Amino acid sequence: MAPLLLTLSLLVLRASAQNFSSTAFPPAGTFSQPPCNGVCVPGPYPAQDKIPPPEDAWTRSVDLSSVPNYPPRPSTMAFGVTCTNGANASLLGPSGICDYSCGDKCWRGEVTACPTRGDWALTYDDGPSVYTISLLDALKAANLMATFFVIGSRVMERPDILHRAYQEGHEICLHTWSHSANTALTNVQIIAETLWTARVVYQVIGVVPTCTRWPYGDSDDRTRAVMKALGFRVITWNRDTFDWAISDAKIQNQTITGNFTQWLAAAGPSGRNASSGFISLEHDMYKSAVEAAPIAFDLLRNGGFNVKRVGDCLSTPSYLDLTRPSNGGFNPAVIGAVAINATAASITTPATTPTLINLASPTLGGPASTNIPGSSAGGSLMHSESVHQRTAVILVVMVSMLVW
Question: At CA 37, angle to CA 34 and CA 38, rounded to 5?
């Protein structure tokens, strides 16, 4: 009986977990105002800050035939790639792999700069966070627009801040679900990291970004090919403030001031000495970094630079056209993304007004007023694991009882 039970269990688990169902999610624009126990976006989302499980339907929708057959780094390096001389030699030897982390900061095909001299794109990674609020206030006071690369797990915590950033005209791009190093992920894990983040961003603001950024800048030819197959534009940078490495606010201010002053002096007025424009990297996840960020605003303006969103300096749409079945990559319909009174290039008007719901508890048995398609009456869906997985467990138990 045991082999039969094991076989049936595996079959049930496989059948129940392989297809993403958009009907299990509420309409775009639905999220909860914090506090909500750190999970403010309803739906069967994966666990936060962990590599999400792959969705078979998403993997099947992406043509991976042109992806090089390079093995990923050991999974132990997912949150911190370590490089050795041997690794450098093998990755940059006869194989010709262009590896950023272990290959002398090698990028190939990523967007690293604004093409026009005098343009400067301010970009901020790793939010949204509580500190993003003061950054948005400062940008608004300065009448400037920026680009935010958001982590899916952070969006789950503060969708209200993401919605505000989008509503105020800032550009939203993806920065994975768990902030894992891409070269330590399999192809299907990269797809899951990217599309789960795209899904939660869509649920909050009703659009799917065209742009993404590697955590740590970590990439190689394999990961680039996966992202090309997905159809996302990868944005990196050519000016790094290293603001994440400094916790002392006073030193942070001095460092930011020194960096931008040095960069602007070398570029000359309006960037006339430079061969292109610039994309700078900062972070809105750290208090000291956000407090120092506005220092750059006056420096850039006094230097004659045009501060723009990345999409503006590239003259490219910031969001996918959801009326099309394909955008040269994955079909947005596979994550349940449909057009909601929005145009592909719009980055100033939110697609929908948020429907705020009361999620007192992110587990089953929450308030009866919670109305989420696909959930049981009187309860919200659990967020820490897939509904499919829970269904599989229930079915396995039922099969076990029948067999025995």
Answer: 75
* CA atoms of 71 and 233, how far apart (whole Å): 23
- In order, the DSSP letters of 365-382 are S--TT---TTSPTT-PPP
252: left (phi over 0), alpha (psi -120 to 50) or beta: alpha
d(CA 133, CA 161): 7
CA–CA dist 214, 236 (Å, integer): 8
Sequence-distant (6+) residues with CB within 8 A of 253 are 291, 292, 295
Per-residue CA distances from 400 to 59, 271, 302, 403 (Å) = 31, 70, 72, 5
Residues 135 and 20 in one domain: no
- Cα radius of gyration (the chain): 22
b/e burial code for range 119-131 (CB count within 10 A of at least 16 → b) = bbbbbbbbbbbeb
Q: State pLDDT tens for residues 113-150.
A: 999 999 999 999 999 999 999 999 999 999 999 999 99
Instruction: Measure the CA–CA gap between 170 and 154, rounded to whole angstroms.
Output: 17
Residue 37, Ramachandran bin (φ over 0: left; ψ between -120 and 50: alpha; else beta): left
pLDDT in tens, 277-308: 999 999 999 998 999 899 999 999 999 999 99
Range of the domain at 35: 9-47+356-403
- Alpha-helix runs per DSSP H in 184-321: 187-205, 221-230, 249-267, 287-292, 295-302, 310-314
Judge if 205 and 319 occupy the same domain: yes
Number of domains in the chain: 2
The domain that holds 150 is classified in CATH as 3.20.20.370
Query: What pLDDT, in 10s, does the model give residues 353-363?
Result: 444 443 332 22
Which amino acid is residue 212, in one-letter code? T
| Tokens matching residue 211 | 């742009």
